Every structure is written in C-alpha cells, then in structure tokens.
Amino acid sequence: MQHLDLLVIEQALAWSQEGETVWLCTVLATFGSSPRAPGSWMAVTKDGRHLGSLSGGCVEEDFIQRLAEGQFEQAARVIRYGDADDAQGGHITLPCGGILEVLVERLPATPDMREHLGTLKAALEGHQPLMRHVDIHSGKRFFSEDSSLGPRVIWPADERAPNLVSMRLAPARRLIIAGISPVSSACAAFAVTLGFEVIVCDPDEAACQAFDVPGVTVKAALPSRYLATHRCHNATAIVALTHDPRIDDLAMMEAVRTPAFYIGVMGSLRTSAARAERLIRSGGLSDAEIARIHMPIGLALGSKTPAEIALAVMADIVRVQHGRAQDAL
C-alpha cells in the first residue's frame, strides 16, 4: 500500500513529464478542528485533475474553480481558508469550524522542476531524509539534509526569515510487529487507523493465515530474519509483542542494526532487566544499543488488556515520532 503523500508526488511528477504545469498545495497550519494535518498535499493541473486533499471537499472545489479562472499564477503564496471575512480564502467557512493556511506553489514543467520533484519522491521512498524549504516571497525552493524527528511543517522556519517554510520529508510511517499475539492484533489495527504501513512477521504459518486485520501485510517468517533481509528506513517502528524470547530477543538484536526511530519490546520491569542482561551477554549489544530499546514498551497508562497495551504502545510511538518528551505530555 503506497502512502498518499508518495502517490501525490508521483502524480505531480508524471504530469510534469507530460508538459503540464502543476500546482502543489500544502497544508501549513490548522486552527481548531480540521480534517487534514499540516504537511498534507494536493496536486492540481489547470484543467482540474487533482490528487490528494486539503479538507472535506469545499476547499478543493473552490481552489480548482479559482485556478480555472486564472488565479494562483505566482510562484508561491499562502491562502487562508475558514475565515468567512477573508476574500483570499473565498469567504469559505469550513463545516468543521476550523481554519486552514495553505501554501500554493506553481510548478512549471521544466527540467529543473522535474529534478526537484524527483528528489522529493526519492525522499518519500526512504532514500534520504530531507528538509524541503520554500521562500514564499521569491518562490525559491531547496533541500537540506535532515534526520531529526519533529513536526512536518515549520513556519516560519527562522525568525530571521519569516517568509521561509520548511517541510520535513520522510517515507510513510511503517510499523513492523514481531510475532503474533492478542496485543499484536490490537496494535496492528490501531496502527492502520493512524496511517501506518503495517507488517506482521511470525514463523507460524497457521497463525499467519488466521491473522485477520484489514490493511496489514503478514509475513510467515522469523521476524529477525525479515529484519536482516529487508531494508528499514528511519520512519520505521519495530515492536516485539509475544513474551517469547526466541522471537522477541532475536528481533531486538536485528532491530538495533536498523535506523528505526522506535524499537520496543513488551515485558515487565523485571523481565526487561533480565532481557537487557541477555542481550548484552548473548547478543553482544552495547549499552548504546540497549538504550535504543523501549523496555518496558509504551506509555505507563496502567494498561491491562491487549487493547489497552496496544494503545499505550502506539501512543508512545506517536510521541517519539513527533519528538515529544514524556514529561512534556
């Protein structure tokens, strides 16, 4: 399953290769209730073809109509939707009562622009994490290296450059679950709802065939072997949820060799301490590698049931992905 972000940029690149000018719209900020988060994209051509979304439909319709009327010819500009008194936003009031600030970029079908879109596409595929910068005033666009976690959109990116928007580019969030258990099922269901690409690995073929969570890829393989033979990018979270050290420990030994942003394994404080000793003694892991592993896994919510444990796990993954400290919650 391809993430919508990647599909939007692939389509924008394809249109550009056909000689079409593309308007790339990015949600910069939201105030109040909003159906789409900052960083969400929509690509549009002059004749109204589009992919992606900014809201529940009313914003898209207004933008496409105004584009057909010859508006948005600037290289870049910001428009505000949801304020009934704002003419730039078409006097639109969103049904959810929220406000959107949207960056609109006009991308002409030039070789330089196709190269720019190609770089953007490669970043979304996980080849290299990047930050994309757009100067709203001049329309200048450029990339910089970035491996940090945090919000997708930073605006203004710098108090000294109030016109500069920075957008963190990363591949679709991926969750690899080592082993099938009741917690695994609940965790996979939560993750799909949150927009993760979810892969579940277990060596038991019968258990794999019985695993039934829509939208999840199931691999009948030892998780450690899967991790050793499949490339992980830095938008990957790896969790082991079986209480079986033959699966969980081996998975952790391979997980720390990856750039995964979150690695965790289920167990009590006492079980986790014993696991850490085993991983150092038998697995040869260093103190720095042990420190990367969240054990016990998840936020301390007092969870008891599989669903509650899964909620604690996914909440912690989202916390880390957004760069939030536990004491900031």
TrEMBL record:
InterPro entries: MoCofactor_Util/Proc (IPR052698), XdhC_CoxI (IPR003777), XdhC_Rossmann_dom (IPR027051)
Cross-referenced Pfam families: XdhC_C, XdhC_CoxI
Segments forming domain XdhC Rossmann: 175-317
Domain of life: Bacteria
Gene3D superfamilies: NAD(P)-binding Rossmann-like Domain
Domain XdhC- CoxI: 15-82
UniProt name for this protein: Xanthine dehydrogenase accessory factor
Organism: Vreelandella songnenensis
